[in-house]
Amino acid sequence: MRIDIPEDKKLVHEVVMPIRWGDMDAYGHVNNTIYFRYMEQARIEWITEMGYDVVPDRETMVMLNGFCNFYKQLTYPSQLIVKTFTGAMGRTSLDLYTTMVLTESPNEAVAEGGATMVWVDLVTGKSAPWPEEILQKVRA
Questions:
Q1: Rounded Cα distance, 4 and 23, in Å
Q2: pLDDT in the model for residue 115
């Protein structure tokens, strides 16, 4: 099943990431699970650039679900441009989308994915409304 990324999204972060030798599997290409690691790393960088610590305290952002559409096999050595976009934002959730292209062919998507992130109170284990300072930064 392919999930389409909406046109209505806002670029919030971009990073160049190397494809590492260890990202490849026995078939000689980057393992599908690693694409999710690339998206995760981009999300973590975006969150920390906003000034938030990713080490959980009382509240934090957690992933509720995720998906990835694979378009092209990747191999070492190369570098990716990984872009993170925000989509719909609810009272407790936020849709994030990610695009990946190779630096040597920036107009050809190798994968696209996304995740629904939820703000969670770690004491109660339940979703909580986004703090106002996060809402302001995401909407800026």
A1: 26
A2: 96
36 in any annotated domain: yes
Mode of pairing for the β-strands spanning 126-127 and 59-70: unpaired
* pLDDT, position 135: 84
In-domain check, residue 5: no
45-53: average pLDDT? 85
**Rounded-to-integer distance, Cα 35 and Cα 67, Å:** 10
Contact present, 43 and 138 (Cβ < 8 Å) = no
CA distances 133 to 35, 85, 106, Å, are 30, 19, 34
Determine, yes or no, domain membership for 134. yes
Provide the CA 20 distance to its chain's centre, in angstroms: 18
Contact indicator for 115, 38 with CB cutoff of 8 Å: no
- Which CATH number goes with the domain that contains 128? 3.10.129.10
